[in-house]
Write a structure and sequence with these properties.
The chain is an alpha+beta fold. It has a single domain, classed as Orthogonal Bundle (Cytochrome p450). 50% of the residues lie in helices and 8% in strands. It contains 16 helices and ten strands. Strands 1-2-6-3 form a four-stranded mixed beta sheet. The protein has a two-stranded antiparallel sheet with strand order 4-5. Strand 8 and strand 9 form a beta hairpin. It is globular. The chain starts with 19 loop residues before the first helix and ends with a strand. Protoporphyrin IX containing FE binds next to helix 12 and helix 16.
Length: 469
């Protein structure tokens, strides 16, 4: 119970459990509010104990930059050895999210290069996103004038975009295998992620209830891996190294050339792209439409801009975004105010260091509280108010802000940011071009959010009315 001298301040804690009961019980699904309270009490750099692990929370731009950018060599590792569940999942190799050192650099570089070669930021990926948007719109058409829940539709859409980038094909929305994979991802993201009680008391895994849940997870991951293995086998037979069709082709080529990219690492990387790329983007869209329903005047302004710049005769394209400043500002404001990744994933320190004068010991856990930066009153006027205009200057141009960091900063920052931005813009605008969304039940429209690995809106229904009828 004796603390190291000079470490950041923080709340009282219990032996063995640390502050676990507060973060997981008192603030169940509301850890973001717990962090908000702690920041008020202890300032922007504070500590809690997650079980026996010291966890440092950095919750202003200065401390985040000081750690993740200025001391990036010390703060860019993941605490793979300290988290029981990730250790378990990584038995056959880690992908991008949970690798460290040279292995991480190699696999991250390979994935980024592959995404670039396959056309993220270029027309190829745009076509895949627009194709998938048409399927999303078909789901809207099926539920016209009936209560509609966006989350599953968006999850299937964003997973299918990753699928077409990775496998070169999409799943049918009513394919039971696909529905199972998507609901598994949803369950995983609704859980506590790195804050799972198993990381405090790993023996909990022997309780029958927990053991059967873990077995279910192992079974679904096994099925996903079997699917990936089959797809890899099929791809091998038709592979042309000069013309990679998708991520699997790029991976197969790199596997031949590099020893670090083993089959286990490649498999884990594909799982990472699905897990990190589907729920995050789907959730941001879910928030975006919730805010538009609550602010019909902002929805109208976005639609007016779409009508003016594109009209109704063709789909909205990525190149249109330069002229659609109000819509761009609205999407930036959604990312600021909802901050679906309320904190970064856990980082760890490879040496003792100092942040804002505090001692940060080697091997502790560190997270950046992105939500705290996005709601910092020193950086934003009325931060809890939804106001796209804050991202527009007097000449109606977009104001770029270094304080908007939904994808984190430093070497661990999200490698999927370009893909995500493209998806957000194309799906958001093409839906608004064809549908007007409105609220059904006011009591559902809560903005506090429910925290799993990401922060999602409390499930809500909306009404989608075709603009052409
Ligand atoms: C709006 C959507 C998204 C948001 C807000 C988001 C946000 C983030 C954040 C905050 C991190 C953690 C960075 C850190 O620990 O410092 C992260 C990591 C990551 N994201 Fe995203 N992300 C999004 C979409 C995507 C997409 C579409 C992909 C894949 C194509 C993706 C792949 C990854 C991967 C692989 C990592 C781990 C990076 C590493 O450890 O080196 N993300 N993302």
């Amino acid at each position: 119970k004796r603390e190291l001298p000079g470490i950041p301040p923080g709340p009282n804690f219990k032996p063995f459990l640390g502050n676990f009961l507060d973060s997981n019980w008192t603030y169940h699904k509301r850890r973001h509010i717990y962090f908000e309270e702690l920041r008020k009490q202890y300032g922007p750099v504070y500590r809690i104990y997650f079980g026996r692990q010291l966890l440092i929370v950095l919750s202003d731009m200065e401390s985040i930059n000081e750690a993740l950018v200025k001391q990036k060599e010390l703060f860019s590792d993941r605490p793979t050895d300290k988290l029981w569940d990730t250790n378990e999942a990584a038995k056959e190799g880690t992908g991008i999210v949970w690798s460290n050192g040279q292995n991480w650099q190699n696999v991250r570089r390979m994935a980024l290069q592959a995404l670039r070669d396959l056309g993220v930021g270029k027309a190829t990926i745009e076509e895949r996103i627009l194709d998938e948007t048409e399927y999303i719109l078909k789901e809207f058409a099926k539920s016209e004038n009936q209560p509609l829940r966006l989350n599953e539709i968006m999850m299937k859409g964003t997973s299918n975009i990753i699928s077409s980038v990775v496998f070169g094909s999409r799943f049918e929305n009513d394919d039971p295998e696909f529905t199972k994979i998507v609901s598994f991802m949803k369950i995983a993201f609704d859980g506590d992620g790195p804050y799972t009680p198993l990381n405090v008391i790993s023996q909990l895994r022997f309780l029958p209830f927990v053991a059967s849940k873990l077995n279910e997870i192992v079974t679904v991951i096994g099925e996903i891996k079997a699917y990936i293995t089959n797809t890899i086998t099929e791809h091998k037979e038709t592979l042309s190294k000069e013309n990679p069709r998708d991520f699997i082709d790029v991976g197969l080529t790199s596997m031949d050339e590099s020893k670090t990219l083993t089959k286990g690492v490649f498999m884990a990387t594909i799982l990472d792209l699905f897990l990190a790329g589907s729920d995050t983007t789907a959730n941001t869209l879910d928030w975006a439409f919730l805010y538009l329903i609550l602010h019909p005047e902002i929805q109208r302004k976005c639609q007016q801009e779409i009508d003016e710049i594109v009209g109704s005769g063709r789909t909205v394209k990525w190149a249109d975004r330069h002229k659609m400043v109000y819509t761009e500002a609205t999407l930036l404001e959604v990312q600021r105010i909802s901050t679906i990744a309320n904190t970064t994933l856990p980082h760890t320190t490879t040496k003792d260091s100092k942040i804002q004068g505090y001692h940060i010991p080697k091997g502790c856990l560190v997270v950046a509280d992105i939500r705290a930066v996005h709601l910092d009153e020193k950086l934003w006027e009325n931060p809890k108010q939804f106001n796209p205009e804050r991202f527009l200057d007097e000449d109606g141009k977009i104001v770029k802000s270094n304080n908007l960091i939904p994808f984190s900063v430093g070497p661990r920052a999200c490698p999927g940011a370009s893909l995500a931005r493209m998806e957000l813009f194309l799906i958001f605008t093409n839906i608004l071009q064809r549908y007007t969304l409105s609220r059904i039940d006011e009591s559902e429209m809560e903005l506090e959010g429910v925290l799993g690995i990401t922060l999602s809106p409390k499930p809500y229904h909306l009404l989608a009315k075709s603009r052409s009828s």
